[in-house]
Amino acid sequence: MDPRRLFRRALAVVGVLAGAIAINELAGKPLPLRWSIFRSAVGANMAKTGQVGDGREKAAVAYVLANARHGDLDDVIRVLDDFARNRRFLMNIGDEKGPILERAITRSAPKVLLEVGTYCGYSALRTIRAMPADARLFSVEISPANAAIARQIWEHAGVARRVTAIVGMLGDSGKTIDTLRRDYGFADGTVDFVFLDHTKSAYLPDLQRIIETGWLHPGTVVVADNVKWPGAPDYLAYMRANEASLWQTIEHEAHVEYQKLVKDLVLESDYLGARTS
């Protein structure tokens, strides 16, 4: 992306957040919108390490271990929501958009699921709660530290055997894709569900990489979070341009996690399959 365009987008994000937070403060904080969200949006550390840089990810897992019942998936989700809503903002799908993800999984009843962007493992918990008992989730995460945190949380929730974290990225010249093929049996037509929640500018190129592998089949469902904010405009334009030819998409209007001022969009897309001449 053009650095000038990126800078303008960052300024716009800062402006929206600062204005929303100021209004919320003046109104007596009726909504859980905090400056920790602002810190997440502008922190340069995130691009380098996958973490905000203020220790919130480590604090989140410590909070779960101290407050959530061991082996209770629902309670771990509850405690993570409490942490993100009332203590420090976490960049996960959250309690408003999480049910959108769960409903998409319930509808499609997938057996093999691929998540791109693990962060602290929250969306994986919601995914596991909705997926069939014999299904398996594979979650790709660029940050080893985040993968370790997610594994701790999954272990505490009692679901570690149902999910595998793979440290890497789909755009690493084929290394992670080869790992998924070689070690985890990914092959033509084997992936039933994909969830995208990582670097927003990577949504479209990573989806195209997944299509090129041949792993998808007609009926595979792809869900993408944060399409409006921070925004994945190229991905949104691609889905709209290919509606009814390659994809059939539902656009779910929602809000950025844990507040009601900044609007967001979740895309739920059914793969129709590539046309053959």
UniProtKB/TrEMBL annotation:
GO biological process: methylation
EC number(s) stated in the UniProt entry for this protein: 2.1.1.-
PROSITE patterns registered for this protein in UniProt: SAM_OMT_I
Gene Ontology molecular function terms on file: methyltransferase activity
Keywords: Methyltransferase, S-adenosyl-L-methionine, Transferase
Spans through the membrane: none
Superkingdom of the organism of origin: Bacteria
A matching Pfam family: Methyltransf_3
Name of the protein this chain belongs to: O-methyltransferase
Origin species: Antrihabitans spumae
Lineage: Bacteria, Bacillati, Actinomycetota, Actinomycetes, Mycobacteriales
